[in-house]
Structure formats: structure tokens, C-alpha cells
């Protein structure tokens, strides 16, 4: 699959373009002749961008349909009535939608080619897939299907209540009297307008359009019922948006469940290709190797199985049923230490190779497959460290330098200033948790970048993180990894959790400046000590 077909590029461009288009779009002008009503088509088109971004990554089958629908919605001339900045942003949105649609087509065609290659590798041999010992086909996607159906039902109920309330308001409006009210306040932060009614009382409305303080607006009144004549349904915009968001989430979850069920049933409905492979279970996941890769140097696939009772890491003979493809369904029949065969199905999307490139399956990150050069450079640094290092006579420490601490402190100060400015500006109720959680997370990232430290002594490594210090004996650690994302990780053997220091560097900037960071050097020297025990500290005096 070509690099341009990866979902990250079109998703990022589309997200930025949509945000810019919303920022540059002028507020609607609401009048009695053309009131700002509950335009369901416009609202649904706007909200469709959110699930479309998710579908680009996890459900390209749905993105194949949503992209043309969004392009049709963007073809509405009313969308292009803004200024030059908004028109440019809208043009970028159209380009990103076309890019994403082409990328989805390329990905789906690549899946078809993958299935053809697997069939050729199997020599055209197809056999019925055996029944699994861990899960039944009818259970695949059941929970997601039920959850998606519930979300869609809730969204439908909310939409029904909005429509019923709108119809009730329309009946009251036909018998209401129209009065002019003066605008006394207009809040652009939460989009509310406050008017003074003819009886000198004040009333606040949710508003979509823009209003000028001191101007007059027509208000419909019927006993205690009051609403703006220019915005009949403004107070239900929040419910409408929530209903559409729940609908998008429900369709996503329901579609994922139905697709999983369809793949599981199709895997057992007709004969499928079968391949002889090697497999091993590693930290709760299953790695699959080619039949001739007896040294387990290059995992071909990895996934999370339903059965997690084994901790063996030895390679075993296995038979792989099905055509491996992105997010597909497989059945693996592997030999056990008792002479029997265990048949299991995948419980997570299939990933190509070992996600972190070290032979140890960890979290999958899009783009890790393109880090071969990074891994070769890391291995070269380890070899340089082995050649240059001398046996340590005391504890060896690796920690953040003055530059990292200064940058982290500056980021924390800026974050606190931004949060202080935001909280003093009367934020809405839904903005408070988002900004609070985001601010705390960013502060924790900066603190981790400032205070991380790893100390090596004769007994092992002492890894200090944000909240605690982990003590790892030398017998438990196998390597230290500095990922392309700037995360420092101490890898451990299968029955010991890895020690994740966190994101402590900026590899792209370090490569551009041609100056290796302290975390990069720490990973190389720690790995060198692990490989060559003679380099480890012999004297622990003064270790803290």
C-alpha cells in the first residue's frame, strides 16, 4: 500500500480544514422572513465529519460511502457564501475528502491483493476452518452490535423529542402575538442573547445568529411561552447536536460489530486458504512467523487472542486459516506442550509484523513499519557504546538535561497562564472538564520530561517516573528502546511489565540538529550494559 494511502494524512488535513472553515464562517443572519430553523440536513452534514474521521482509520468500508455524501453536501452553493478565507478552507475540505476517498479505495484494493497473494502462497488449497475452542462465531461482534443499536435508539429518541417539541412550538406560534424586544446582552462565548420584554422582564435565548446590543428583535409570546421569531428552535440546538453525535457513534459501533460478525461467519461458511506457520504467545498477544523463520527474527502478523492462559514464548508449529488482511479475521490451530492442538480466533484487529519492531508486541502505532532506519541507527549507537564504554566503578545515572528542564518549565508556565485566562473568562460547563483534563495531562507530560531519571547499579536499574520509582534486576531487563515518538521504554522479559519512562525527547528535532538527546544516549548505553555484563557498575557506594 503506498504511503499516500495511509489514513493519517487525509484525516489531519481534513480536520484542520474543517476547523478553519468553521472559524472563518460568518454567523448566520436570522430574520423573520428567513428564520434560522432546525435545518436537519445541514446539521447532519456538519456532524458527519466526526464519524468520517474515525471511519478513515477503523471502518474504511463506511468511509467509502460517507466521503461521497460529504462531497455532495459540500456542493451546496450556500456553503460557499463566506469570505475568501472560508472559501479556501472549503476548497481544502473538498480536496481532503477526495484524497481520503482515494486512499480508502487504495486500501480496500490492497486488501484484495493481500488475499490473492495468500491464496497463491497456499497453492490454491482451501479447507473448511475448524471450530474454535475459545469463542463461537455468533458471539463475534455481538456486544458491539447491541451497544451500537442502543446508541442509535437513544439518538432516535432524542431526535423524536426535538421534532415533537418543534411541532408543538409551531402550533403555539400560530396563535402567539408578536412584540418587539430590545437586545440588552449578546454573549459570543456561549451564543446566548438576552432581551428586555415589553413588561420590562428579561429573557435569555440560545442564539445561532449574531445580534447587536441596543437593537430590537421580534419576540412571539403566548402566555408564559416566549421565543424569538427569528430563531424558532434555537434552544434545542444542543439536543440536536447530541442526537447526531450519538447517531454517528452508534452507527460506528454497530457497523464494527456487524462487520466483525460478517467476517467471522464468512470464515466458516466456505473453504479458506490454509498456511503452515510458526507462532508464539508473548505478553498477552500472539505473534505469527513464516514457517522457515525458526529464529523468530521477523514477525509477520500479531493479534490479541481470546485465550490468555499461556505464558510460553517458545515457537510452535501452527496452521493459519483464512486470508490475512488489515482488520481481518483469522483462525489459528497451534500445537501445545501437551501434544494437543489449540484452535483460537483473533480478538483484536490483525497487525502486520511486531508493532514496535523489537520482536515484542506492544501498542500499535500507525507508521511504526516505516521506522527501519530508526532501528538501524539505534543499533549503531549500541555498537558504538559497546566499543567506547568502560566498566563503571559506581552508579551510572541518565536524566533530563538543562535544556529539557527549561523547555518543560516554560511549557508549564505557558499552560498555567492559558488555563488561568480561560477559567477567568466564564467558560461553559462542557468546556471545564475538557480544558481541565487537557491541562493536567499536558502538565504531567512536561513534568515527566523534566524529572525522569534512570540509575544503574550492580543490582539492576532504578527507573524514576512521574509518580514512583521502579526497581528492575538485571535478569529481568532485555533492552532499552527510544522510539521514534520520543518515548523511552525499558523492555523486560515476558512475565515482567515494561518500565515506561514516557515521552522525554524530540527525535525529529534531534535528527535535524544532529545532536543526540540524553534519552537516546541512555537507551544505547543501557542496552550495551544489558548485552555486556562487564560494563555494569561494580561499586554501589553513593547510589540513590
Short description:
It is built from twelve helices and 20 strands. It has helices at residues 8-24, 40-47, 49-58, 60-74, 84-121, 142-175, 237-269, 372-388, 402-423, 431-451, 507-513, 518-531, and strands at 126-127, 177-187, 192-196, 202-206, 216-222, 225-228, 272-282, 285-290, 301-303, 316-321, 331-335, 341-345, 351-352, 396-399, 453-456, 460-464, 469-473, 477-482, 487-492, 499-503.
How would you characterize the overall build of this protein?
Helix 1 runs antiparallel to helix 5, helix 3 runs parallel beside helix 7 and helix 4 packs antiparallel against helix 5. The relative contact order is 0.09. By secondary structure, the protein is α+β, with helices and mostly antiparallel strands. Among the domains are: 120 residues; 82 residues; 166 residues, no CATH class. It has 12 helices and 20 strands. It is globular, with a radius of gyration of 30 Å. The strands form 4 sheets. Strands 1, 7, 8, 9, 10, 11, 12 and 13 form an 8-stranded antiparallel sheet that branches. A 5-stranded antiparallel sheet has the order 4-3-2-5-6.
Amino acid at each position: 500500500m503506498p504511503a499516500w494511502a495511509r489514513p493519517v494524512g487525509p484525516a489531519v488535513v481534513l480536520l484542520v480544514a474543517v476547523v478553519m472553515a468553521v472559524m472563518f464562517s460568518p454567523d448566520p443572519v436570522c430574520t423573520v422572513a428567513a428564520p434560522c430553523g432546525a435545518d436537519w440536513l445541514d446539521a447532519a452534514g456538519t456532524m458527519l465529519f466526526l464519524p468520517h474521521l474515525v471511519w478513515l482509520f477503523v471502518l474504511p468500508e463506511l468511509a467509502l460511502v460517507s466521503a461521497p455524501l460529504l462531497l455532495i453536501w459540500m456542493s451546496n452553493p450556500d456553503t460557499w457564501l463566506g469570505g475568501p478565507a472560508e472559501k479556501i478552507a472549503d476548497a481544502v475540505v473538498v480536496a481532503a475528502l477526495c484524497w481520503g476517498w482515494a486512499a480508502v479505495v487504495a486500501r480496500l484494493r490492497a486488501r484484495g491483493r493481500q488475499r490473492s497473494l495468500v491464496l497463491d502462497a497456499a497453492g490454491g488449497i482451501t479447507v473448511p476452518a475448524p471450530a474454535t475452542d475459545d469463542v463461537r462465531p455468533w458471539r463475534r461482534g455481538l456486544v458491539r452490535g447491541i451497544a451500537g443499536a442502543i446508541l442509535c435508539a437513544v439518538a432516535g429518541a432524542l431526535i423524536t423529542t426535538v421534532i415533537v417539541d418543534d411541532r408543538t412550538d409551531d402550533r403555539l406560534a400560530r396563535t402567539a402575538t408578536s412584540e418587539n424586544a430590545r437586545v440588552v446582552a449578546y454573549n459570543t462565548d456561549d451564543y446566548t442573547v438576552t432581551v428586555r420584554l415589553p413588561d420590562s422582564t428579561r429573557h435569555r435565548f440560545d442564539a445561532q445568529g449574531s445580534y447587536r446590543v441596543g437593537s430590537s428583535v421580534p419576540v412571539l409570546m403566548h402566555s408564559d411561552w416566549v421565543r424569538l421569531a427569528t430563531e424558532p428552535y434555537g434552544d434545542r440546538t444542543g439536543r440536536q447536536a447530541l442526537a447526531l453525535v450519538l447517531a454517528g457513534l452508534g452507527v460506528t459501533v454497530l457497523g464494527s460489530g456487524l462487520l466483525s460478525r460478517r467476517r467471522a461467519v464468512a470464515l466458516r461458511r466456505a473453504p479458506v486458504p490454509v498456511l503452515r506457520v510458526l507462532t508464539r504467545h508473548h505478553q498477552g498477544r500472539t505473534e505469527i512467523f513464516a514457517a522457515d523463520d525458526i529464529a523468530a527474527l521477523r514477525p509477520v502478523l500479531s493479534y490479541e487472542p481470546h485465550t490468555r492462559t499461556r505464558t510460553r514464548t517458545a515457537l510452535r508449529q501452527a496452521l493459519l486459516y483464512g486470508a490475512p488482511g488489515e482488520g481481518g479475521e483469522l483462525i489459528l490451530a497451534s500445537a501445545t506442550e501437551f501434544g494437543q492442538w489449540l484452535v483460537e480466533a483473533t480478538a483484536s484487529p490483525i497487525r502486520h509484523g511486531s508493532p514496535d519492531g523489537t520482536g515484542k508486541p506492544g501498542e500499535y502505532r500507525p507508521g511504526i513499519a516505516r521506522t527501519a532506519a530508526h532501528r538501524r541507527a539505534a543499533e549503531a549507537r549500541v555498537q558504538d557504546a559497546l566499543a567506547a564504554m568502560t566498566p563503571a566503578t559506581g552508579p551510572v545515572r541518565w536524566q533530563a538535561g538543562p535544556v529539557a528542564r527549561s523547555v518543560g518549565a516554560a511549557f508549564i508556565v505557558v499552560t498555567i497562564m492559558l488555563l488561568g485566562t480561560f477559567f477567568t473568562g466564564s467558560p461553559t460547563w462542557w468546556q471545564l472538564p475538557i480544558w481541565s483534563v487537557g491541562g493536567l495531562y499536558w502538565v504531567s507530560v512536561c513534568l515527566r520530561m523534566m524529572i525522569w531519571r534512570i540509575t544503574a547499579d550492580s543490582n539492576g536499574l532504578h527507573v524514576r517516573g512521574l509518580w514512583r520509582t521502579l526497581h528492575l534486576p538485571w535478569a529481568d531487563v532485555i533492552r532499552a528502546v527510544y522510539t521514534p515518538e520520543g518515548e523511552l521504554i525499558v523492555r523486560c522479559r515476558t512475565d515482567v511489565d515494561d518500565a515506561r519512562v514516557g515521552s522525554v525527547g524530540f527525535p525529529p528535532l534531534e535528527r535535524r540538529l544532529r545532536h543526540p538527546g540524553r534519552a537516546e544516549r541512555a537507551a544505547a548505553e543501557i542496552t550495551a550494559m544489558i548485552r555486556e555484563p562487564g560494563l555494569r557498575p561494580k561499586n554501589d557506594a553513593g547510589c540513590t
